[in-house]
Amino acid sequence: MLGLMQNHPLLISALIDFAERYHRDGEIVSRRVEGDMHRYTWADAARRSRQLAHALDAIEVRPGERVGTLAWNGYRHLELYYGVSGSGRVIHTINPRLLPEQIAWIINHAEDQALCFDMTFLPIVQGIHKHCPAVRHWIALCDGDRLPQDSGIANLISYESWIAGRPTAYAWPRLDENTASGMCYTSGTTGNPKAALYSHRSTVLHAYAIALPDSMGLSARDAALPVVPMFHVNAWGMPYAAAMVGCKLVFPGPALDGKSVYELIEAEGVTVATGVPTVWQMLLTHMAANKLRFGALQRTVIGGAAAPPAMIDTFRNDYGIEVLHAWGMTETSPIGSVCTLQNKHLSLPADEQLKLRMKQGRAVFGIDMKIVDPNGNEIAWGTGVSGDLYVRGPWILASYYKGEGGDPLRGGWFPTGDVATIDADGFMQITDRTKDVIKSGGEWISSIDIENIAMAHPAIAMAACIGMPHPKWDERPIVAVVVKPGQEVTREQLLAFYEGKVAKWQTPDDVVFMDAIPLGATGKMLKTKLREQLKDYKLPA
Ligand code: AMP
Questions:
Q1: Residue 326 Cα, ligand 1 centroid: separation in angstroms?
Q2: Is there a cis peptide before residue 334, judged by omega within 30 degrees of 0?
Q3: Ligand 1 pocket mutation pick from 357, 439, 445 by most atoms within 8 angstroms of CB
Q4: Distance from residue 430's CA to the centre of ligand 1 (Å)
Q5: Is the CB of 418 inside a 6 Å radius of any atom of ligand 1?
């Protein structure tokens, strides 16, 4: 027997409608690319999102077609989140830190019909527009009078003139809740990037989950600052959850340095902020150097890479700020787990509590997690044994866009490429990863790409790229190489060889010359052994 309740679809348009109705004067504050501060309300954001939906109708972007963005966190990007998805198109947020060729490849693979970009990224667009034939409209996120006359880009329009004068009412379509709403590419370990394609249903359910008290604990009394970019898994879902609870939203624009983030937190009474450890490291360094204190800030959500224990300690003990250590991936929308303690832990000594807080935490409701041994058998919780972390749930990827890479699931579970333990209470802790990648400042570097480039150098016989711990960037790549007999190459020559082949920040920090790279029985490079051999190695200052 079926239940007799309404089968009402979970839609992104309902979030902005709700924010407008119940939190119409709730503030949205943005530091703009133009350098000034912009303030308006949820009602303004809702109205302009509807005008944007009309503007998309006018240029005939059809339902399901992709609209790309190259943009910082700001109010126009928020309007794109709602206007594009709400009207049945798919917002495709692109990481501007990639190489222009990679960005063009991604735009072409997604078949973006329009591309909206902050003026910071004009040089990228000028470089790639001729290589992206499917893009019919290039839209600069600026006022009409700021549009460059001589950009060389055909069909360049300004966002403000594009939406200006459009009707402020729009009938959001009643879509199937499984309709695609957003898209985000993640750089794979091998080959080209692959895209996660989110749905209205997965996005709204994820917003509920991250707002829960033992997740980010969001409420209408909060002022939320997503420092994590809106091109990184939808700023971890904050722009959706903020509308759901009606909290104030504060956007940092391009200014992510410690001083700018601190000033924004203080000026806007931010209570909760989200970001990768690198961002918090810059903030804490600035605060310590200037003997600063927080006013309203209550909690920070740290994810994307492991939160260092010293950082958790400093936030809590020196500043009285609750740290919420979270784990997730592009493929998991992203939040899978958040670390909050249970009642029984509150009486534990401080060092025991810190050990728990260093873990990535318990799965949020909706997510199932398990760890498996090399044969795929589940490892029981609480054994201390680590295994491959598998997840499943309504906001976990089922397949990559266009089926790239084949079926990623194993028996209905998504293998994360992370290695973890799960304790008896279900607290998961990442201990390693099986994917051959390095995460620097929250951004991926493919070890295999770095190795392939070195191997393309005529003097190199073998190359292995590994990550080394770094106090600011979490990890930095180095490349260990074996030079061909009779050949010569210097460190500087090899590093120069990377120019133009990867983004500057992806270039290895150092080259280590070796007689041999340790190999396994099948000829595969043994990176664990290499790491052991280089355990006393120090990155150049
Ligand atoms: P991305 O798809 O770029 O969001 O990266 C996801 C990956 O980042 C995960 O699979 C982990 O390897 C890593 N990651 C994310 N959060 C954490 C965390 N709290 N601790 C350790 N690694 C993390």
A1: 9
A2: yes
A3: 439
A4: 9
A5: yes
CA atoms within 13 A on the CB side of 227: 30
The answer, yes or no, to whether any atom of ligand 1 lies below 6 A from the CB of 436, is no
Q: Is the CB of 186 inside a 6 Å radius of any atom of ligand 1?
A: yes
Q: Which atom of ligand 1 is the closest one to the Cα of 325?
A: 19
Q: Token pair of 419, please?
A: 């290695």
Question: Three-state SS for 60?
Answer: coil
SS3 of residue 412 by DSSP: coil
Alpha-carbon gap, residue 55 to 83, rounded angstroms? 9
SS3 495: helix
Q: What is the DSSP string of 248-308?
A: EEEE-TT--SHHHHHHHHHHTT--EEEE-HHHHHHHHHHHHHHT---SS--EEEE-SSPPP
Assess whether the C-beta atom of 390 lies below 6 angstroms from ligand 1: no
CB-CB contact of 211 with 241 (8 Å): yes
Evaluate: CB of 305 within 6 angstroms of ligand 1.
Answer: yes
Going by DSSP bridges, is the β-strand pair 368-372/387-392 parallel, antiparallel, or unpaired? antiparallel
This model's pTM is above 0.85: yes
Q: Is the CB of 334 under 6 A from ligand 1?
A: yes
Which residue from 396, 430, 434, 446 has its CB within 8 A of the most atoms of ligand 1, so it is best to mutate? 430
Nearest CA to ligand 1 atom 22: 305
Give how far Cα 529 sits from Cα of 287, 519, 524, 532, Å. 39, 9, 12, 5
**Ligand 1 atom nearest residue 444's Cα:** 3
- Known catalytic residues? 186, 331, 439, 444
Tens digit of each residue's pLDDT, the chain (541 residues)? 999 999 999 999 999 999 999 999 999 999 999 889 999 999 999 999 999 999 999 999 999 999 999 999 999 999 999 999 999 999 999 999 999 999 999 999 999 999 999 999 999 999 999 999 999 999 999 999 999 888 999 889 999 999 999 999 999 999 999 999 999 999 765 678 999 999 999 999 999 999 999 999 999 999 999 999 999 999 999 999 999 999 999 999 999 999 999 999 999 999 999 999 999 999 999 999 999 999 999 999 999 999 999 999 999 999 999 999 999 999 999 999 999 999 999 999 999 999 999 999 999 999 999 999 999 999 999 999 999 999 999 999 999 999 999 999 999 999 999 999 999 999 999 998 888 889 999 888 988 889 989 999 999 989 999 999 999 999 999 999 999 899 999 999 999 999 999 999 999 999 999 999 998 777 778 888 899 999 999 999 8
- Is the CB of 277 inside a 6 Å radius of any atom of ligand 1? no
Ligand 1 atom having least distance to the Cα of 433: 12
Measured CA to CA, the distance from residue 111 to residue 132 in angstroms comes to: 9
d(CA 75, CA 93): 15
Out of 324, 340, 418, mutate this one to test ligand 1's pocket (max ligand atoms within 8 Å of CB): namely: 418
